[in-house]
Amino acid sequence: MLKTNGRFTAYAREALQTSANTAVRKLVIAACSLLCVPGLVLAQAPTPQAKAAIASLLMYKGADRDQRLLEGARKEGTISMYTSLNPKDSGPLTEAFQKKYGIKVSVWRASGEKMTERAITEARAGRFTPDVMESDGVEMEILAREHLLQEFYSPSFKDLPPAAFTKQRLYVADRFNFFTIAYNTNLVKPEDVPNSYQDLVLPKWKGKIGLEADDSDWFAALTKVMGEEKGLAFFKKLQENKPQMRKGHTLMAELVAAGEIPIAAALYNHGVERLALAGAPIKWKALAPTLGRPGAIAVSSNPPHPYGALLFADFVLSREGQELIKSRHRVPASTAVDTTLNKFPFLMIDPAITLDESAKWEKLWNDMFIGQAK
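Above: the chain sequence. Below: its structure as tokens.
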């Protein structure tokens, strides 16, 4: 029995009773149980007037916008960012921002799940620490549903494709993770490289294909695009080829590069590109339809430093910020930045659908692939 000393909110009760998604349930339980700590001091929430002023600022489009943001941000002097992006990739962004504007960026980094847990826990306790948050789409969708994000405007939106935005526009993609095949160039001849997903179920690939164990959202999205009946039939044939299951896209890419697995069905092409540029015998290829996961940035619903928060979001989405993302061999969302990593048609996996339908697709995925690997 979960005890919360009266702080178990109606939202939490409803989430636990109705949510079919285990990730959401775990986050709610973790957040609520942490709120039971004796002596926890609840900070006063921003007044309705303050919230309205912040919302107006975040959507401001006046000619003096840039000057207004800079002056306000310099008075604030600092911002706080919660992110799951690793320091090697987030560091260049924060360092460049600090150098350009003289505004300190305090970064708290953890896995997407832990980052989300912390943000929810603090918010339920009335503590509002982060100004901006950056993580994968599913984590951002959870934060949006917890009312921890709010809509903002940036002039750089004009350079973003439609796939960068959700209907609610509470978070915006600043980078993409594209699923492509990857293969070892010493083990797979050029003429044998698959040209379609159907080529992956050919008998010659039996026992030679790798699958990442947590890619049930890719499985769900690809099945839907193919049409559920045809899609499940395709994955049944792929199952018959006895793919090797591993946990972690980075590990899988390294195993392909090392020749332990000849080909992988779904790896992030930016991770493969990093290994290839380092001289590893590995290449990637986009098959149609190519699916992607968004990585996104958002402004907190109660930012302690709203001017700095918006200025930082502007910077990340600007040409300068997107070039820095590209320099880390990641895929920038902006169409103003030229990269070979996105020059193909693609579809985004909808984070909302991933959350809402996860129980169904995780069960199918686990029954089809994880169970056979045991």
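Residues 358-373 form the longest helix (16 residues).
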